[in-house]
Amino acid sequence: MKLEKCPLNPILKPNPKNAWESLCVLNPAVIYDEDRQEFAMLYRAAGNDEEHRIYLGLATSKDGIHFQRKSDAPALAPDIDGPDGGGIEDPRIFRLGDAYFLTYASRPFAPGQYWLKDHKDFVTYTQFGPMGYNRNDTQTHLAFSKDLRHWKKLGRISDAHDDDRDVILLPKKINGRFYRFSRPMGRCGEGYPNKNPAIWISSSDDMLQFNEPISLFYQGKLWWEDAKVGASTPMIETEDGWLMIYHGVNKKDGAYRVGAFLLDKENPAKILYQFKEPILEPTEDYETKGYYNGCVFPTGNLVKDGLLYVYYGAADHFIGLATFPIDELLKKLKEEPYEE
User: Fold this and answer.
1) pLDDT tens sequence for the chain (340 residues)
2) Domain residue ranges of the chain, discontinuous segments joined by +
3) Which of 35, 81, 142, 208 is the 20 to 30 Å CA partner of 287?
4) What's the pTM value of the predicted model, to 2 decimals?
């Protein structure tokens, strides 16, 4: 089973008129704004600067395909002297009550043009201080908004000792707890049950402080995910359980592919069903030729009028869209029980 790629892909390209988004747009958060009756997209963007500082732009659409930018300025920008000074990356969004919550990845220093072999390092090293600061580790932060235009940054939700960027939160409390799915890069190898970077799960009562215990949720077992796996898009609640879309990387070709789980509705640590083959993989030129060749990386999804929309970064250069009827996808998924 494969998601159906939009024939108009890529649906969003860099904008040469704005320096901060002139090089690449990718990895968007997308939600349907019921108040305005429109799709709202917060997309990762960067210009052709040596530092490669990263921003979020805002675009909207009536049909989920044709998006119009709302401003020539970023919707959310890094605080140069703050902990997210290197850029704001890979947003995921969900609504809880009357507020929108956004998780985003960030480094203290800009990463430089990472796809170049001789790219410059912009880290200001110190002899002492936090290890993650000297390594320029990625942390995941939380922000909220009432209107998708004005944002309040709430701070870090990942552990300061972990390089952790693939973080999604369950969009409601289960038994009084919020659940976090993350991919801490250092929690693998000797002393851990997983050889390669994997998905871990933890919980909190306030969405900010996720203390121990943290436990292994899933490590890559299939041919297309034998290098690492990570959570991708926000959870979608269905009558059958939580639909979770995730990504995996293959050691042989380095490609990013996409899979899906169905989780128990009352126990999100329990996987019920899993597609054994990827439901999205890089096949088109806009996915195989870019700043990371062979990459489809979903960060946004929603269901509208029975159709599942999955928005993804393509080769770290463009934004693509794939769709599939949600009921048909769930029916096919429930034909493939999870195998421990």
Assistant:
1) 999 999 999 999 999 999 999 999 999 999 999 999 999 999 999 999 999 999 999 999 999 999 999 999 999 999 999 999 999 999 999 999 999 999 999 999 999 999 998 888 888 877 777 888 889 999 999 999 999 999 999 999 999 889 999 999 999 999 999 999 999 999 999 999 999 999 999 999 999 998 778 899 999 999 999 999 999 999 999 999 999 999 999 999 999 999 999 999 999 999 999 999 999 999 999 999 999 999 999 999 999 999 999 999 999 999 999 999 999 999 999 999 999 8
2) 4-333
3) 142
4) 0.97
> Tokens 């019921």 label which residue?
34
4-333: CATH topology: Tachylectin-2; Chain A (2.115.10)
Tell me 213's DSSP state.
Answer: P
Distance CA 122, CA 105 (A): 18
